Amino acid sequence: MNSMKRFFTLFALAGLSVSAFAQSNLAVADLQQDFALLKREVGKLRLEVEQLRAENEKMAEALRKAQASNASTESANLMANSLRSEMASKDDAT
């Protein structure tokens, strides 16, 4: 009878061990799945960051060109105003 109790106790412990092992495997599988999802999300975010950097560079270049164009326009306006003043003073002199 005592050996029967031991047998059932060992059998129950073995069952608990298998159950704990199965739960452990499920936990590891869940962690692996979570890791894979995070890895994909990080990949998407890296791609998005690269796209934003490229777009930012294009916008910065467009801004530099617009500022250069604006400087040229201001310079042309200054020259035109100078010529107008010069011509106005010559008209007054005439």
Mean pLDDT level: 83
- What structural category characterises the helix and strand content? mainly alpha
| Biggest β-sheet strands, sense, barrel | none
| Alpha carbon gap, first and last residue | 137 Å
The secondary-structure element order is H
Number of helices: 1
Q: Tell me, briefly, the overall form.
A: rod-shaped
Strand content: under 5%
Work out the helicity level.
over 70%
Number of strands: 0
Can you describe this structure?
The radius of gyration is 40 Å and the shape is rod-shaped. The chain starts with a helix and ends with a helix. The chain has 94 residues and is mostly helical. It is 98% helix and 0% strand.
Record keyword descriptors for this entry.
94 residues; mainly alpha; 1 helix; rod-shaped
Summarize the structure.
With 94 residues, the protein is mostly helical.
Strand and helix layout:
Blueprint: H1 2-93
